[in-house]
Specification:
Blueprint: H1 3-15, H2 25-35, E1 38-41, E2 44-48, E3 54-57, H3 63-72, H4 81-91, E4 92-93, H5 97-106
Parallel strand pairs: 3-4
Antiparallel strand pairs: 1-2, 2-3
Amino acid sequence: MEESKYLVLVQYVINQTYSKWIKTKEEQSRWKTKVSKFVIEEGLLKHKKKKVDCTLVIQKHQVQAIMYMIHDHPLGAYRGVGIIVQKIRERYYWETVYQDCKEHVKTCREC
């Protein structure tokens, strides 16, 4: 997730204040619906998957480290896109996880 979007989400979840680009009641309503899936737990922004489970929201600069842990690391076992996406979604959230995993596997020398 882009840092600017991440910060706007955190600001809203903590303070319920809208970003300056959200002006109309309709935009506010759409934003509230989207943001209702996020919570702050132990100082970290998390995404609610189900009624109980939450996954850590990942910023764009953290994606490569996650990919390394799940795919490239010797314990990651160089699995295919589907398995990588499943493993990542068990613990982490970012909007482009599938596309990022697909691109990572496509450019992986070992695969």
